[in-house]
Structures are given as C-alpha cells and as structure tokens.
Amino acid sequence: MPGTVTLYIDESGDVGFKPNSSEVFVIGYLVAGKPLRLSNDLNKLRRRLSKRLASRYPSSSSARTGKRCVRRSSA
User: Fold this and answer.
1) pLDDT, tens digit (0-9, with 9 covering 90-100), for 28-53
2) I need a surface site. Which of 45, 57, 72, 74 has the fewest CB within 10 A?
3) Domain coordinates of the chain in residue numbers?
C-alpha cells in the first residue's frame, strides 16, 4: 500500500512500583517503510551471526543456538 509504514514497538523493564522492580524502563521503536525488506535483511543477519557463533563455540548445538541468542537480544 503506498504511503503506508509499519511501526514496531518494544519495551523492557517496568515502571518501578514493586521493591524488586528494575531500575530502568526502556521503550524502543522502529519505523519500516518496507517491512518485507526489513524482515529479509534481519533473517540474513541472523544467519550470518548464527554461523559466527557456531564457529566460535563449536560445542554448542549448531546454529540454532545462535538464532535463539539473536532473537533474545533483539527483542
């Protein structure tokens, strides 16, 4: 659709109303004019990082472990 953008928003932490609350609350956003291209680029990056992690840590369970790490850190 022309003139349409996709907005991705994520938050981390909490606002601090409980004694064990985190000290930091962060909101991040990404505006994507071409979400399909963004998805493809992120998949390429995940594959590349997975290969790099697998070569550094050969005892880990293949490239799947790297993919999980990338997803966790980017969320």
Assistant:
1) 999 989 889 988 999 999 999 988 88
2) 72
3) 6-74
| Percent of residues, the chain, with pLDDT higher than 90 | 27
Query: For residues 59 and 66, what is the distance between their CA atoms, to the nearest angstrom?
Result: 12
Helix, strand and coil percent figures for the chain, each rounded to 5: 45, 20, 30
* C-beta separation of 34 from 55 below 8 A: no
Q: Which long-range contacts link 23-30 to residues 24+ away (Cβ below 8 Å)?
A: none
Cross-strand partners of 60? none
Residue pair 34/42 in contact by the 8 Å Cβ criterion: no
Hey, how many other C-beta atoms are within 10 angstroms of the C-beta on 38? 14
Structure tokens, 42: 């992120």
pLDDT at 67 > cutoff 90? no
